[in-house]
Amino acid sequence: MFKRLGRIGLAALTLATAPLMANEDTAQARERWYQAIDQRYGVLSDASERLEASAIRFCQQPDTPHRKRLNQDWMDAYQAWQAVRFVDFGPIEQQSRAWQLQFWPDRKNLVGRKMQAWLAADQPPTAEQIAGDSVATQGFPALEYLLFDEHMKANTLSQPVACGLMKAIANHLADGTSALRSDWQRFAEHYRTTRSYTDATLHGALRALETLEDKRLGDPMGLTGGAANGYLAEAWRSGRSIRLIEGTLHGLEDTFLPGLKTLLSSRGQAELADDFRELLDRTRHRAAEMSPGLAPILDDSAAFSDLQGLYVQVGQLRRQLEEIGGTLGLVRGFNASDGD
């Protein structure tokens, strides 16, 4: 039996009235969400398989073209995860799967320390050993260390231990994302027939925007009580933080928004979804036009102004979705990121 909401049980959004769950049109929204999420999990699984194959090819022939392809396949798979990251219920809750894909925040540099320990070993680990190790060794940030960290010299990745470590991590990712999609498909009937998953899906999208505003942007920008610190950003080693944010916004636009519009249209309020889509589209385009890394922007006043603009728009998206939630019969409780 799948856990229903996990940490969502502490809900930041709770039902105020019965109409949202009693409305049979919510089943149509869940059907659209199910199909879109299934497709996104498929994209993630396929991208992870390409990443694994790319790692194998590079280790067989560690030349510049294979390295460029490896870097790109890592980015493609990482963005594919971002696009479906808002789904924080169902199979993704099992076995710390989200943490296996992305161990973050990492304020103690556990990823770096774990990678250094494996690189110092006499033999590379097997995929089974990676599966049994810490989540800090299992996902995209661990591969990012091997591909981009300053301690990895030009030829280090082609060495047997480093290449073996990379292949083991990539294999674990490919196996894990394939299993995730299969489990989502087995979860289909439960999701489709359980009205409370309408609430869960709305909450997941709102939580994604809260995390994006407060932690993924606010913390490294120094807007949440601390000093600006680029090392608090995701993907700081590769300088791809903004590209990951773009991936999240893209996923909300093409995976979450269609079901939301179905839900609002059934209540004669499709214009609310249109307004949300318009702002979401503008915010995504803004991110796409920015330089890929967040940390360098902190020292560039002009670029930082643009980053502040992105932060403001994400906050506007968050408030719009909160208002939509209220329209649908949901009320705000305490902040959804409390307790993280």
UniProtKB/TrEMBL annotation:
Q: Where in the cell is it found?
A: Cell envelope
The record's Gene Ontology cellular component field reads: cell envelope
- The Imelysin-like domain is annotated at 39-320
> Which CDD domains does UniProt cross-reference here?
Imelysin-like_IPPA (cd14659)
Endpoints of the signal sequence: 1-22
UniProt keyword annotations, A-Z: Signal
Please state what the protein is called.
Answer: Imelysin family protein
According to its UniProt entry, this protein's organism is Halomonas eurihalina
